[in-house]
Amino acid sequence: MTTLLKEIRHNPLLWLLVLVPVVWAAQLIKPEAHTLLFVLSVAAIVPLAALLSRATESVAAKTGDMIGGLLNATLGNLTELLIALAALRAGQYVLVKSAIAGAIVTNALCMLGASFLVGGLNHHVQEYNRNNARFLASLLFLATIALLIPSVTAEADAPFTQTVSLGLSVLLIVTYGLGLLFELKTHRELFTGADHTEPDEEAWPLSLALITLAVVTVLVALVSEVFVESVQQAATALGLSPAFVGFIIVALVGGAAEMASALSAARKDRLDLSVGVALGSAVQIALFVAPVLVFLSYVIGPAPMDLQFWRGAVAMMLIAAMTASLVTNPGRSAWFLGVFLLIVYLIFAMTLYLLPPRI
Amino acid sequence: MTTLLKEIRHNPLLWLLVLVPVVWAAQLIKPEAHTLLFVLSVAAIVPLAALLSRATESVAAKTGDMIGGLLNATLGNLTELLIALAALRAGQYVLVKSAIAGAIVTNALCMLGASFLVGGLNHHVQEYNRNNARFLASLLFLATIALLIPSVTAEADAPFTQTVSLGLSVLLIVTYGLGLLFELKTHRELFTGADHTEPDEEAWPLSLALITLAVVTVLVALVSEVFVESVQQAATALGLSPAFVGFIIVALVGGAAEMASALSAARKDRLDLSVGVALGSAVQIALFVAPVLVFLSYVIGPAPMDLQFWRGAVAMMLIAAMTASLVTNPGRSAWFLGVFLLIVYLIFAMTLYLLPPRI
Amino acid sequence: MTTLLKEIRHNPLLWLLVLVPVVWAAQLIKPEAHTLLFVLSVAAIVPLAALLSRATESVAAKTGDMIGGLLNATLGNLTELLIALAALRAGQYVLVKSAIAGAIVTNALCMLGASFLVGGLNHHVQEYNRNNARFLASLLFLATIALLIPSVTAEADAPFTQTVSLGLSVLLIVTYGLGLLFELKTHRELFTGADHTEPDEEAWPLSLALITLAVVTVLVALVSEVFVESVQQAATALGLSPAFVGFIIVALVGGAAEMASALSAARKDRLDLSVGVALGSAVQIALFVAPVLVFLSYVIGPAPMDLQFWRGAVAMMLIAAMTASLVTNPGRSAWFLGVFLLIVYLIFAMTLYLLPPRI
């Protein structure tokens, strides 16, 4: 507990935690002030995500870069999953889908690019395990092929779209499970990164890390409710298109935790961890979170959700997967590769920002 | 002859050869029993394909993995060619085209994937000549670019489509010829696989192998006639869409011979032979069989055939070529790469299976 | 000056320089003879381009393969830029755009392919710096993603297309600048080709080279005016579609200078220079010339120009970038890779040639 308080005292970002109770106060007093609630809930999720990141790093510190990366991706995506669940319960399927697509694109382009850029500004050339990067980029490519299907067969009838989405969800989650078996069990020797013995910031005790994870998860779930309720009307008030909000803002807010740990790892020349977090997170959203949301929509949603995305979103996911595959192929990085990925991301973000709202 | 009989006695699959005369008997007695004829002819082609495979392996045994792979692909595709010729003569151009597209996708995804999976279950990591794999995957990519043209310019008029298809056929077959010159003559040293001195099953004498090839070819041609006549009505009776039948069933039946030799080579850690058979076969269908069928349609078909495929088929061929290129790039394989290719294949097969018949 | 005259005496191609004054004479006497003016101006640009090439090589001889390649690409593209400027001033935006798209495709497929073929006919296998090839192919891929945007969002309104084109132009030119910083300054050690100490043809003195560059630039600009005025009507007279003329003929004429130096370098086994010229030139047109033309259209054009290309052109640019990336990935070349690129180019050229004019 003392460790946690000391941490908060030294990290000004965590002072934003004070906004968590403010969100509920505002929600009770002014439930119709959507823009205010939107800004407050975004600002409150960021320190929560940072706490998650710090707690996860503590656990990861004892498990090695690769498992740590997987762990980060799993727990980092908790934020995305919780936001998507709130939207699913509210029946906002367009928001759920653009959050999924946006998270994939943001992780594979923006987070990976920012890691390469930050790493490259501190180190001339950085090496990382290309087997791991290739494996993750290939899985992402497979997922985008699957997500392409319901969109290109859109002229078929709705029952087909629903059935094929269910079938694809099963195939995706089976692939994810077999991929974990391959990476963590049968061929783990292919995925071990270079050893970095450099000592970390003092790692938290395991008990504190786990308790923090649990409590913060609940807090994120609660703030996400407020976020989802306010986001669309706030977007209209701010003159942003729903596509931009779902794709860019929700994805950046949801990914803040992983972004923080990916960048900090890149700065410390632990690029295996950065690539694992960024691509691993994109893979997990595509092959695990998306199918789980489809299954859960039968239980908690007002109607079954399919995997039919807006065609532009499918194209962006496909290009993101191909770009990530192209860039990580050599297993080496320098600052310009970060710029490269970020420019592709900016091309997409600018297009979505300028796109007239009706599309 | 004794060798052949001994072979048949020891291989239960070959007992199915008894079905070959049964097909003709059934055809004479009950020509309207389409589903029965369909099932019988499929079941009769399989042992014939196995015999072809065994005879080809005997010839290949004396010529090295690479030439053997090419030989396998050439003779294995005889089955596809004979089925396509039967369909061409009957004017069933939709069946011809979906058989071509299906054979490319099935060889590049299902056969290659099954080889990697079977090989990977028996060996931890397998290496193979990546020059050969890259060469074949690139040729496949080129062929899919060519086959894309008549489909994306579909708004143009029919004479354009016919002329451009003829031009593309010439370019494809010229590329195929120059590719063979490169692989077998000017740069053959780039394509030699690792030597495997491990002795094979007793190879047949060359004369027996060649006679078997000739006789079985004729038998396949005759059974294919029955197959083509019965397939569409049987499909309707079985509730399968024509796209699924042409793409998946015809391709699997036609490729049974190569599948058998690719899998047996993978089990013996001769992955160069497997990759050569699977990708080489896809390449040969795209760059040799397809153009030959276009040319022959002017002679034996009721009307000239073009190369305008259904857009979904083009997309699947393009994705298959890109996936094969991505997966074979490292020149190493493990079981998960097989799963990867098979999942992409399953995504396509499931979509075609679920697709409403009218599309 | 004596050097220049001696050069002209020994190079029959340069005798075509006599056509430069003939073009103006013809323009004055028979301004309505479009086909004649078209043929004359094409024939006059070729020796001018050759002179540019020779002068550039002289400068490049003192700066090493990589800088020389960049220099060649910069000055070689002067011809394209001058032709495009003449078309821009005449408000012929369709011609400008197809010249841009055609130059990208021609450089990445035809020029690179011809270099690999010519090099491969003289050398069994050639090696080159794959870092450089990868860097350029990746930049080309990024540019085609950017140029894809206004085409796939064509259903949006015109102001959106104009704004997004401006934004993309800024992103492209920023990427180009940062790419130069990376290649020439911060990471230049990654891009140095193998040393070739073999002496060149006697290099011109720097002063002669620079004066020739300046004078010939003015001449090309003047001949381009005649070319642009005559090209469309000549095309109609010759039965060629405007797409074919802009894409293939303008691109080949505009790229003649670089083609000459790329081929001569390939013959001398200086493939780093060939790849630098071919891909570097494609990259420079996509990331520098295209945005500059958009900016200049606000100043010298009759109306702002956007980056919305015909969808077929976008598809060809994207395929060209992917093919170049695939082929240059190994950093080794043999004659068949040249054939491969040229066949893809022929597929496009034949399609454009056969395409009915109305498209």
Q: Can you summarize this structure?
A:
The structure is a homotrimer of 359-residue chains. Helix content of chain A is 78%, strand content 1%. Chain A contains 13 helices and 2 strands.
Give structural notes.
Three copies of one chain form a homotrimer. Chain A has 359 residues and is mostly helical. Chain A has 13 helices and two strands. In chain A, helix 5 runs parallel beside helix 10 (256-267) and helix 6 (130-152) packs antiparallel against helix 12 (311-328). Chains in contact: A-B, A-C, B-C.
Q: Give me the Rg of chain A, rounded.
A: 20 Å
Q: Which of globular, elongated, flat, extended, rod-shaped describes the shape of chain A?
A: globular
Largest sheet of chain A: 2 strands, antiparallel
Distance between the termini of chain A: 50 Å
Largest interface: A-B, 29 and 24 residues
Strand content of chain A: under 5%
Number of strands of chain A: 2
Class based on secondary structure composition and strand pairing of chain A: mainly alpha
* Arithmetic mean of pLDDT of chain A: 86
Oligomeric state of shown chains:
homotrimer
Low-confidence stretches of chain A: 194-199
Strand order of the largest sheet of chain A: 1-2
Helix content of chain A: over 70%
Query: Count of helices of chain A?
Result: 13
Report the order of strands and helices of chain A: HHHHHEHHHHHHHEH
